[in-house]
């Protein structure tokens, strides 16, 4: 995981009285915690303000790969949250698994395209040029023809990468198929298992740890992504109630919203 604590301790080197090292950073999920399809969830902006007032570093970690990093920051700004360069998307984490100059076929939205280009990889036309890798995110018009193109690329030796395992994501109209559902189709056709970059995978762990260091908190609404990320990092986990965990029975501690979790778990 590296010596990622350096950046956190630098600022307080000459101020031993400050408690920065003791004040944990928070990695906050977006869908179902801060907003739901762009509609702000009650108390979320206040919760972020309260955390910052108490000296916590706050970052936003989403398994959505569709929107560009700047678009995520703009959407946060529109509901009164300054992202302060603290957005990590599954597209960014997955792109970190690519090598500079690799030829990549992309099944996904603008956020995934941007992250892959920012990594220094080259995006090639669909399956025609024997790509080094195929990267799967969310592509609303994914269909049999697209699946066939991916299959040709993977059968031709391309590595299969994907942003996240989430089988669904929440919308105001209910759950919709997530990246994990598309990848399941690809794996069924090719017999190849994907390597994932988003929560809770190693690529995301590294990015979160580089920013927050040890001893943080993950607030999210999925045990299998947010909770597993917290466990892998040795962070505390605040499970926020939402549509995607309404069926869970075993979770004794669940917060009604981000503000509830912040008031309960953050230190002044
Ligand atoms: Mg979520």
How would you describe this protein?
By secondary structure, the protein is of the alpha/beta class. The protein has helices at 6-10, 44-53, 69-78, 90-95, 110-119, 144-155, 179-190, 202-212, 223-233, 258-265; strands at 26-28, 35-36, 39-40, 58-62, 87-89, 103-107, 122-123, 133-136, 159-162, 168-171, 174-177, 195-196, 217-220, 236-239. 35% of the residues lie in helices and 18% in strands. The strands form four sheets. Strands 5-4-1-13-14 form a five-stranded parallel sheet, with helices on both faces. A five-stranded parallel sheet has the order 7-6-8-9-12, with helices on both faces. It starts with 5 loop residues before the first helix and ends with a helix. Bound molecules: magnesium ion. Residues 29, 31-33, 220-222 line the site of magnesium ion.
